[in-house]
Amino acid sequence: MGTTTVSRWWYGIVVTVCFGVLLYAFAMVFMTVGPSQPARSDGELVLKVLSLAATAAVGMLLYVMTALYVVSFGLDWWYVSTSDLTSYTPSRWYLGIPLVALSNFVKPVVATPLIIIGGAYYLRQRARFVGRPKFSSVLG
């Protein structure tokens, strides 16, 4: 590509943090307007089945995104800490965030907020010390 970067694995962290925010928004909408009573008509039954299928699909996507998050976070941490392009060395404590993310397979309701907050904090610190990404090179 011709551009020198420390690591592009932060893309996976950004995608999963954004997905986590959307997941909680979906959960709030589902709790507000989702099925709470038995269906009284065929149309209502179809709506309830589709909303439950969407919930199952989001749940499966959560597991895929968790795996992406753990791999992206670990690799980005590794490349940033071993790069000659920056003097910033992220603390090893940051590696606790992907370990917490692995608990998403057991207790997703507890782990997802920690993943969102931890990922956002890591990206903020990374941007502060490594530099802000140039979105012109990302988008085109």
Automatic annotation (TrEMBL):
* Transmembrane listed as a keyword: yes
Keyword Membrane assigned: yes
Keywords assigned by UniProt, alphabetized: Membrane, Transmembrane, Transmembrane helix
| Annotated TM spans | 12-33, 45-73, 93-123
The protein, known as:
Uncharacterized protein
